[in-house]
Amino acid sequence: GEDVEQSLFLSVREGDSSVINCTYTDSSSTYLYWYKQEPGAGLQLLTYIFSNMDMKQDQRLTVLLNKKDKHLSLRIADTQTGDSAIYFCAGTGAGSYQLTFGKGTKLSVIP
Amino acid sequence: SQTIHQWPATLVQPVGSPLSLECTVEGTSNPNLYWYRQAAGRGLQLLFYSVGIGQISSEVPQNLSASRPQDRQFILSSKKLLLSDSGFYLCAWSVPTGGPSYEQYFGPGTRLTVT
Asked: Which residues in chain B have their CB less than 8 angstroms from residue A35's CB?
């Protein structure tokens, strides 16, 4: 089945860019997602990218997909303290409506 | 617009007691429904999913069960809780199979502490 890996922690200064990386194993993943989880809350879908795209930009968020290397990244420009959260990468594996989540990257923004 | 509700928000239960967590979705029909558990370490573990009333698939064998008595209601249960059942339980929904992009939308979660 699908396996999704992320680094566990990232610390950046306010105003800098954050880059959160993710690797996945299932090359047939059709969609790849980024979710955000604030403390004590559910997951909020931030953005997703279809597997035939290389890049998707949405305001401060840029998603890059390297399908050859099975590598996905989320770049947050001008990171703010409100961006502090856990960010999950997820992919559709076998069974297109099921998602496999990474363990999440905890982003800490230093004022 | 669609909304998803979970209750209770927090729950403290003794070992061996029963459990019932409820999830309801509004504003959509025939959604796919999911139960996840998020234990310490933050990983999300898919417990159950359902593509229709009475249709439940279990991903992980354990002392939990799920039921879907109505189209937009998903219930997570246990007859006897274990300490290891403590965690943050998340319900999610997605458009029916064959929808545009399969993204899942999550409820606010239930924090369960088994003592």
From this structure: 106
